[in-house]
Amino acid sequence: MMQAEYNRSQGVNYMILEGQQGLLDYEEKMLSENTIPVLLNFHIVRTNAKLQYWYDITGRKSVRTYAEREGLSVENVQKIMEAVAAAYRMLAQYLIREEKICIDPDTVFLKNTGTGLEAALCFYPKNEADGQNSMLSITEFFLGVVDHEKTDAAELCYALYEEAVRRDASPESLLQVLENKSDQALFAQGQQETIEPENEPVPQEPKEKEERTRRKFWKRQEKEDFWDTKENDTVTMDDVFSEEEEEDASLAERITAFFSGIPGRLFGGFRKKKEEIFPPKDLEEDLIYDPHMDYSEPTVLLSADKDTCFGKLIYEGTEDETDHMIVTDEFHIGSAKKGNQAVLHSPVVSHHHAKITKKDDTFYIEDLNSTNGTYLNGEAITLGHKYELKYMDRIHFANVPYRIV
Fold first, then answer.
1. Contact 260, 253 (CB under 8 A)
2. How confident is the model at residue 284 (pLDDT cuts 50, 70, 90)?
3. Does residue 37 have a pLDDT over 70?
4. pLDDT of residue 33
5. With 0-12 CB in 10 A as exposed, 13-18 as middle and 19+ as buried, what is 41?
6. Range in 92-101, 119-128, 284-293 with the lowest mean pLDDT
């Protein structure tokens, strides 16, 4: 696994990888001095006979962080692989050799552009000397974090891993695996669908005839004395149509007019008659009190696991923020409504800014690669490290001040 360090300097989050001493080739110099959209921006630092590559990862999430946070559903696996494949296609446009790209869950970074995921790759010359399989490490990571109870996602991750092991797979070949799996799923879904037998279409009366019949019927309905049917009255076709209308009406119109509403009216008359003979009982009957009956509601036990407060973040600023109760073992802070237990409104707070975790009786805080950083008692905390929190510690999410109690 790639060993990376993290540092924050002048408001920028860096991932640091160790390089090899020696003369830099033209490609390294050119890429370190220019911005390439598909690559992480980096600069080279020489200290104490060491060579380091400092990559700007501000505002981006590694594949590891994204997968652990969002989960590895079929859709998310496809989003990640499509973003990586799109980035690889751009490498060819800049004549950058794929052998020098480090593909690892911790070195491929993603950014949500609003229309999808955008991948930024890590140019790392040492990767060529190590001769690593470019896609094997990331497919192994998928297998380790996928929820194996989700059969579709687990099978997809196994298929990607088998493709990466079988040969030195490229992102395009893994995309082909995704397409094949998608086609198989659609085929299986089609096989499960029941094909209904085709029936002969039932001839329908023209719409104008239906409308004419409806008008005639409701015209007759206006004659209220027609509906005042007595017990032994018999309704005939003469009651529905006049002689002229009956000559002009087709057989279908006659039947439609006769049965469209008459039975309902007749049964309604019967129901009315029944209500006159047997009036409905009052729904609210007198309550007979039984002294031996317990009419009180049972006492509900308060669940110890519901809304249990482990701690509290007290806001100490003057803007429009509030206090937050820490009620989960993993407590996220950020400006996005989705995925955060504490939603802050300041524009300088990242969507997913920081996380507080509880282990036993101790709280820990870590920064989630926020743009403007997280500070504990005035000191910036380093990405990738967890810091123990103590009672009354002061925390700044960017410039938003809180105190933990």
1. no
2. very low
3. yes
4. 85
5. middle
6. 284-293
